[in-house]
Amino acid sequence: HESQEHVRQALQHDELVLYYQPKVNMRTGQVIGAEALIRWQHPQQGLLAPGLFLPAIEDHPLAVEVGEWVIHTALDQLQVWQAQGLELVVSVNVGARQLQQHNFVQRLAQMLAAHPAVKPNCLELEVLETSALEDISGVSHVIEQCRHMGVTFALDDFGTGYSSLTYLKRLPVALLKIDQSFVRDMLHNPDDLAILQGVIGLARAFKHEVIAEGVETVAHGVVLLQLGCELAQGYGVARPMPGADLPHWVQHWQ
Ligand code: G
Ligand code: G
Ligand code: MN
Ligand code: NA
Asked: Where is it localised (predicted)?
């Protein structure tokens, strides 16, 4: 595991990169967007997954800097894709705590203003429940303000947090992301299948969209479609890839 100081140097030396994993509609075949996933292109150790270095900066001001770098870089990428004729929504992961940094809304507005060609509704934020002690009304207020700018929201890892149902009830999001832990064994485990049915029903009751992550095979996709979940992300569709590879991937997928 990496230290705070090393992550700071990675940021300064431009060694952080974003990979993008496509999200598709399994019924229509349409590519609806891509999730930005951070990696560290480490000069000695190769490509490092976020689990190896994000924990080192959690609850540290550096997490704010990295979070802003991610949004800025995703907006840059959107601008490049758009110039190539590719219209997508990019999703960025944000901790509920990151949303509560004192000037988050203002900083987001500045970053959007710095990318005038990018429509705000092409940016989606996936909110991660990071602790049991979140100030939900504060988070909710921030989401409202961002929604006024046109940015959309998803609840990430739905079902795994301390208070998923409270989040569902209180946060004005448009999309639920079913955590991959419920999807992985859905073909064999009746409990997981029951949870999927429940979450898809909840999404419908709240008039939210729902996406399954960790969709690894066609068989998973077929059952999810039968259950009423049309949107999918997972290795069965595509692995996360560099942004430069995505236009080519989209061409061959369609
Ligand atoms: O890409 P990978 O499957 O290794 O991601 C592991 C975890 O890291 C996921 O839960 C994802 O939400 C998180 N993650 C990936 N990129 C970012 C990021 O830019 N910011 C934050 N806060 N979390 C991220
Ligand atoms: O932000 P979130 O927790 O949703 O992060 C998704 C993580 O799951 C990323 O690290 C991504 O690399 C990983 N992932 C995406 N699709 C699959 C999949 O089909 N199977 C598995 N095991 N992991 C996946
Ligand atoms: Mn996510
Ligand atoms: Na997730």
From this structure: Cell membrane
